[in-house]
Amino acid sequence: MDGELRSHFIASADGLQLHALTLGAANALTPVVCLPGLSRPARDFVVLARHLNRSGGRRIVLMDYRGRGGSDWDPDWTHYTMAVEHGDLVRVLDALEIAKAIFIGLSRGGLHALTLSAAQPHRVAGIVLNDVGPQLEAQGLAHIKNYIGKLPLLRDIDAAIAHYKRAMGARFPAVSDEDWRFYASNSLNITPERLRLSYDPQLARTLDSFDPSAPLPDMWPLFEAIEAPILALRGENSDLLSPKAHEQMARRNPRCELHVVPGQGHAPLLLDAPTLNRIGAFISGIAG
Predict the structure, then answer these.
(1) Whole-number pLDDT of residue 56
(2) Which residues contact 254 (CB under 8 A, 6 or more apart)?
């Protein structure tokens, strides 16, 4: 096993540099690919990646979408779409010579895993969905719309931690001070002048047209067609994935297992030992 994270930069079809981190060398085991949430960076998965690599020896890949983390920002914000990001994902997989993988998707990343399973099912050996599914709650999406792209002037990381605790603490009572620091550090680019968001604020414009009263797409057929094993995580206090929808996932696809993360909302941080171990056990059960 190789404990060093390595950065890779892959050119997108339109010339942007896409960033990915890898942990561990390619081997006979099926690799794991981690896909972040809408505004989240690949770094969110570092603790999980080290846990999986240490316990199972698999190569782990963590991807930054365009406009997030270490990837280039797109000069045209209208390119921040699922379709464009899907093309970027396939390009990264091809560049890293990943023919098949187990995908861990946080929120938007889970939707990318579902989309890939429909478009290229031969590439998907298993899926871990973190607080996302085929039926989402409009109030959860409205909540995301309300905060994305916004950041008050913060003087240092301690002020940032206090900010995120105020904004999220009621839904995340189980999160430790150490984990809040990890989350806040990943959310920001820290410079001597000020703290900035770790993503392009123009990303918020992609939600300008969202109408919480409009019906959301029906993704159940997509989910029911998945033939790979699935582990569906739900934060106990999530406002995006309801308990009813979560339970339905196991009923409507017999390959789906469920796990609830206590004391966390949307989306679980994947830092607590029980959740890390549950994901590890699920992945260990996948052949290859």
Answers:
(1) 87
(2) none
pTM exceeds cut of 0.90: yes
Token pair belonging to 137: 């709650």
What CATH number corresponds to the domain at position 222? 3.40.50.1820
Backbone φ/ψ region at 190: left (φ over 0), alpha (ψ -120 to 50), beta: beta
Q: Which residues does residue 18 pair with via DSSP β-bridges, in sequence order?
A: 10
Detail the DSSP E strand segments found in the chain: 5-11, 17-23, 32-35, 60-63, 101-106, 124-130, 188-190, 195-197, 230-235, 256-261
**Residues 218-251, buried b or exposed e (16+ Cβ, 10 A)?**
ebbeebeebebbbbbbbbbbbbbbbeebbebbee
Q: Does residue 172 lie in a domain region?
A: no
- How many angstroms separate the CA atoms of 81 and 59, rounded? 28
Q: Tokens for 243?
A: 């308990």
Q: What is the DSSP letter of 272?
A: S
Contacts of 240 (CB under 8 A, 6+ apart): 107, 131, 132, 136, 137, 140, 141, 143, 144, 266, 267
**Number of structural domains in the chain:** 1
Measure Cα distances from 129 to 11, 37, 98 in Å: 27, 11, 20
Say if CB 265 and CB 168 are below 8 A apart.
yes
pLDDT for position 264: 99
What distances in angstroms separate CA 106 from CA 26, 158, 268, one per listed residue?
A: 23, 26, 9
Q: Answer for the pair 111, 76: CB distance below 8 angstroms, yes or no.
A: no
**Residues in a beta bridge with 129:** 105, 232
The Cα–Cα gap between 283 and 103 comes to 10
Q: Over the stretch 38-75, which tens digit does the pLDDT of each residue have?
A: 999 999 999 999 999 999 899 999 999 999 999 999 99
The answer to whether residue 155 sits within a structural domain is no
- Residue pair 74/201 in contact (Cβ under 8 Å)? The answer is no
